[in-house]
From TrEMBL:
The keyword DNA damage does not apply. This is DUF2065 domain-containing protein. The chain crosses the membrane at residues 6-23, 44-60. The keyword Iron-sulfur does not apply. It comes from Pseudomonas peli. It comes from the Bacteria. The lineage of its organism: Bacteria, Pseudomonadati, Pseudomonadota, Gammaproteobacteria, Pseudomonadales. Keywords: Membrane, Transmembrane, Transmembrane helix.
Length: 61
């Protein structure tokens, strides 16, 4: 189980690094826009992301 968790975390790092590597200016602009969101909006965005990821993972499994 620990090996799969490590693999999953490594894949997260790879996926998180794709956008800053390919288009750093757009990525920076997006981060600046995210900083302007309220805490509630960020929480809702995080919740939507977790639900989408869980749904896709369940669908693929």
């Amino acid at each position: 189980m620990w090996q799969e968790l490590g693999i999953a975390l490594c894949l997260v790092l790879v996926l998180e690094g794709i956008l800053p590597f390919l288009c750093p200016r757009h990525w920076r602009d997006t981060l600046l826009q995210l900083m302007q969101l309220s805490d509630r909006q960020l929480r809702l965005l995080g919740l939507a992301s977790m639900l989408l990821g869980t749904t896709v993972l369940y669908w693929l499994h």
